[in-house]
Amino acid sequence: MKSTMTKLLSALVATGMVAAAHAADLKIGVAEALSGGAAQYGAAIKNGFQLAADEINQAGGVNGNKLVLQIEDEQGKKEEAINVFKKLIFQDKVLMVFGPTLSNSAQAADPIAQAGKTVAFGTSNTADGITSIGDYIFRNSVTEADVLPETIKVTAKHTGIKKVAVLYGNDDVFTKSGYDNFKKALEDLKIPTTTTETFAKGDVDFKAQLTKIKATNPDAIVLSALIAEGAPIMVQARQLGINVPFIGGNGMNSVKIFDLAKGSSDGLWVGSPWSIENNTPANTKFIAAYKAKYNVAPDQFAAQSYDAMYIAADALKNVKISGNLEADRKALRDALPKVTHEGATGKFAFRQAMGKNGKPAGYDAQQAPIVSVTKGGKYVIEK
């Protein structure tokens, strides 16, 4: 009998079945807007995560453990984001949570993750103050405060703008934060503002604001908007004969601008660590893999989620999974800040943010932005 068992064990070892028996699924929560107005971001983000997870699993997983994504639709709404975070953390008992899609939702839901001592990792949240929530809050999306000054500087260099009008959404954490950072950058660069106009999420007619802007004769329009409002703003501006450049935040950095704004999409300046025209080996590989899997070009948000999955996997390689969920969540939190990565979005490292109490809190992205302008249906890198 003993001899038979020994032979069976030897056979299992030879076929790798014993190793498989000891491998564990690493359950990762994904809370993204897959319906509603923010789904144009959330769908690409989900695709980026899935592509990276599939690649990692096909290459043997993380220390032999398979990544399993628990995907939930938070609809781009604060209340839904809170509910989804509670479900993933306390009911589904995921190791960590990626998301939510919008900064508004992150400000509402991330405190749930912090209280539950579970990493919340944002890949599209760029508003001020997100990572000050606590030391379990991470993001690899570069803040508007880091990107917008460089975007304005490069735009001014190439277009010679002397004065600008400002248009922003005043009922959203992301677009309001974008406005605050645009305002500071313009003041620092001593570029005067001819007028400041606002709109609300869900608005469809912007002609009144644009007519006021046109009367002030600006050299460019600084626009802090999500693409659902930003694209029709560009269309209506061109219809009114306003043909000056637009300077946008990362909410406007999407290939969807070419579908939504069509012939009015030229002349949009944006900054981001990622560009579809950046021909590094890692980015070229990502773009080809994304197109092959989804039959569409990726955007900044897909690239950031793709890299984020690899960053998390790199951290997990240094975590000895014990089966004690609280201990494993803390070990992942401790491993993440040490990760450096070079992926589709370039060289990446974390830097610690400060909390509102002046003490160290969560972690922001440390990356250099690339500034691009839309020309003839594509983004062109400018320096």
TrEMBL record:
<protein>
    <submittedName>
        <fullName>ABC transporter substrate-binding protein</fullName>
    </submittedName>
</protein>
<dbReference type="InterPro" id="IPR028081">
    <property type="entry name" value="Leu-bd"/>
</dbReference>
<dbReference type="InterPro" id="IPR000709">
    <property type="entry name" value="Leu_Ile_Val-bd"/>
</dbReference>
<keyword id="KW-0732">Signal</keyword>
<feature type="signal peptide">
    <location>
        <begin position="1"/>
        <end position="23"/>
    </location>
</feature>
<comment type="similarity">
    <text>Belongs to the leucine-binding protein family.</text>
</comment>
<dbReference type="InterPro" id="IPR028082">
    <property type="entry name" value="Peripla_BP_I"/>
</dbReference>
<dbReference type="InterPro" id="IPR051010">
    <property type="entry name" value="BCAA_transport"/>
</dbReference>
<dbReference type="Pfam" id="PF13458">
    <property type="entry name" value="Peripla_BP_6"/>
</dbReference>
<keyword id="KW-0813">Transport</keyword>
<feature type="domain" description="Leucine-binding protein">
    <location>
        <begin position="26"/>
        <end position="357"/>
    </location>
</feature>
<keyword id="KW-0029">Amino-acid transport</keyword>
